[in-house]
């Protein structure tokens, strides 16, 4: 399948690297962004085609990912409208930009909204897709199958995108913050940061895999670690006293509030 990318920042690069790494579908990638110095070397290093313009990406691609800053997405679609081919599928990854806002400026286009996270780069992503009412199921399934090569997917109503974006799109940063906090505690007690980072990351990876493989609710796994009268429950209670769960929920509240009222 011929894939195109407009934008070559963090999200676009994660998607392109994931598509390069997966072995389920045969894909070719064409990319353009406003920063020549970033997309041209990236394309050359990875065997992708660097296009001279956004229009050239459109001309060469069946599915085009729009991965520019959210605030630039509608204007980008407006600029692309005159050169859009009717069978091109546009896939917007922009947080907080609705299908209605995009379809308003490209009414004849086949547009889909997805929310991936950066873990798509290693085919461990979590991606939501919103199925537009006007798109045929076959076209929609084609994009679902494409995104499934990058990790897990879920179809959600667009109304759920802000919460999904918070607990999956942004959450790699929040999970990394927790890992960093564990590691810094390790440094406090004498471990090197390099060793502590690895220990904390592997522990969190194992815990996530345990929940998924055994379909365990987190609280059940927490109980398994907490020996009666032991160290873990003492740590858990101190974390709760410091407001860990409330702090996380407050962070998610702020994430959603920002998406719903971008600056
Ligand atoms: N970074 C992340 O983890 C996630 C980001 N997103 C969405 O992905 C989009 C991009 O975010 P990032 O990659 O983080 O930003 P970024 O700032 O790293 O990348 C933006 C890219 O867009 C390019 N660009 C800007 N205007 C352009 C135009 N008119 N034509 C062509 N290229 C243009 C820039 O040169 C740059 O390559 C945003 O809409 C964001 O909401 C969605 C999910 C997760
Ligand atoms: O920070 C952001 O706005 C984007 C959307 C989800 C993850 N990153």
UniProtKB/TrEMBL annotation:
Residues 158-260 form the Pyrroline-5-carboxylate reductase dimerisation domain. Its main location: cytoplasm. It is found in: Cytoplasm. GO terms for biological process: L-proline biosynthetic process. Pathway: Amino-acid biosynthesis; L-proline biosynthesis; L-proline from L-glutamate 5-semialdehyde: step 1/1. It comes from the Bacteria. GO terms for cellular component: cytoplasm. NADP(+) binds at residues 6-11, 33. GO terms for molecular function: pyrroline-5-carboxylate reductase activity. NADPH binds at residue 54. Residues 2-94 form the Pyrroline-5-carboxylate reductase catalytic N-terminal domain. Belongs to the pyrroline-5-carboxylate reductase family. Catalyzes the reduction of 1-pyrroline-5-carboxylate (PCA) to L-proline. This is Pyrroline-5-carboxylate reductase. It comes from Loigolactobacillus bifermentans DSM 20003.
